[in-house]
Amino acid sequence: MAGRRRGRGEGSIYRRKDGRWVGQYEVNGKRRYVYGKTRKDVAGNLTKAIAERDAGLVFDAQNFSLADYLDLWLDSVSGTLAPNTVRRHEELARLHIGPVLGRVKLSKLDPLRVQAFYRSKLAEGLSAATVVKIHSTLSKSLKQAVRWGLIPLNVCASVTPPRVPRTEIEPLDARQMEALLEAAKGTDLHALWVLLATTGLRIGEALALRWDDLDLDARTMRVNRTVFRGEVSQPKTKSSRRTVKLSRLAVGALRQHHRAARFVFCTASGNPINVSNLRNRSWKRLLERADLPSATRLHDIRHSTATLLLSRGVPVKVVSEMLGHADVSITLSIYAHVLPDMQDGAADAMDDALGGTAPTQRRDQGVGRGAFAPTGPLGRSA
């Protein structure tokens, strides 16, 4: 049954050729639109939009510059996103988007202008990865502008960001990890390096650990926060908040670590250690002492831990949970280089299960129970 005819000022509803329903109304003599999959959805959205218009809650995009709008958007997300995420969006908007596109009217921004902006940033020497981050910030802000009814479309959806070259992960092998931990013995941060090597923690998560996050008797560790640029905050995702089982190697190192303050790894004033200071004052010296490549990054410890666990037959799901990945597909994507070698172990396991030739395990690859036990300090029972 057809609905009642909408009165003057109540807007109109129609269906486009592509099947999508559209609601049209006016604000200060200018047309605005809301969309939906069904007529009922659009009717509800239209009623809400007109109520907001009548209450004076609708802004006129014609009077917004992109810089003005980004300020408004950043204020709106400050309570809904992690502080570190908001800070990164603010920096990208202030340092890159604002100086070039800030004076452009929000309603006049178009795909060609944005595409040219990305090309100019690449020409200035910015990496493709940084430009992709700029694209993400701009796209998310414009997506919200569409939801607020300020613009009909997100122009970033019609723009192609640069491709980020995929760099091959070069993890440390078991002997190199053992050399790293051997070189760390006797240093103030021996427990930190052992913890990173045996759990795969992100460096920010490790530096934000407090003693009450640890239960050394139960050999467990709760990951509840992270530190970024000196500020402690909650992790970005729900999966990052997790409980990790500690190896006996890690427990022993932590028991010997000096308790100076609330944070496990802290400065003389009791604050979390600055990551840049850690990298420049401790990590580089540790690499030299262990005779490891100087290009090895702090984050490579995490990659090395994951690679060692996977290569020894630890289930991908378990490794993914230890690392705090949001989905196991992330783990599979990052550590695909380990999977081909694991097929050898899988084939041998089937031979063993079905009466074929008994499997022969290599020292750097195990399958099933008991495989997670390489020799050396990393191989002690967990």
From TrEMBL:
GO MF, one annotated term: DNA binding
InterPro entries reported in the protein's UniProt record: CB (IPR044068), DNA_brk_join_enz (IPR011010), Integrase-like_cat_sf (IPR013762), Integrase_catalytic (IPR002104), Integrase_recombinase_N (IPR010998), Integrase_SAM-like_N (IPR004107), Tyrosine_recombinase_XerCD (IPR050090)
Residues annotated as domain Core-binding (CB): 64-146
Single Gene Ontology BP annotation: DNA integration
Domain of life, source organism: Bacteria
Keyword DNA-binding in annotation: yes
Pfam families, A to Z: Phage_int_SAM_3, Phage_integrase
Chain positions covered by the region annotation Disordered: 350-382
UniProt keyword terms in alphabetical order: DNA integration, DNA recombination, DNA-binding
Keyword presence, DNA-binding: yes
Annotated Tyr recombinase domain residues: 167-348
Protein name: Integrase
Lineage of origin: Bacteria, Bacillati, Chloroflexota, Chloroflexia, environmental samples
